[in-house]
Design brief:
Elements: H1 6-22, H2 29-44, H3 47-54, H4 56-78, E1 87-88, E2 91-92
Antiparallel strand pairs: 1-2
Protein name: NfeD family protein
Keywords: Membrane, Transmembrane, Transmembrane helix
């Protein structure tokens, strides 16, 4: 079962991170971090890793939740600020 192999998840994270560089915005970075989290859990081992190796739904749930949390945190940290105004040549965009 391919979802139980740790290097597959880390390779997918690397590919998604490379594609994020080519894509504008924060489109794939959350998925890259989510895949890296699953890969790290599979490398480390432990009770959660045992559950991930048995159950595809548990693996996908961890991937989805970690991707969503990573996207939300990154969006809050480096995303667009509400107080920023984009301007060109000392003029407001909305003028």
């Amino acid at each position: 079962m391919i979802w139980t192999v740790w290097w597959v998840w880390l390779s997918a994270a690397l590919v998604l991170a490379i594609l994020e560089v080519l894509a504008p915005g924060f489109i794939l970075i959350g998925f890259a971090v989510g895949a890296a989290v699953v890969g790290i859990f599979l490398v480390i081992g432990g009770p959660l890793s045992a559950l991930l190796m048995v159950s595809l739904p548990a693996t996908l749930l961890l991937f989805a939740v970690s991707s969503l949390v990573a996207w939300y945190v990154l969006r809050r940290v480096v995303g667009v600020r509400k107080s920023q105004v984009k301007s060109w040549d000392d003029k407001d965009v909305n003028d």
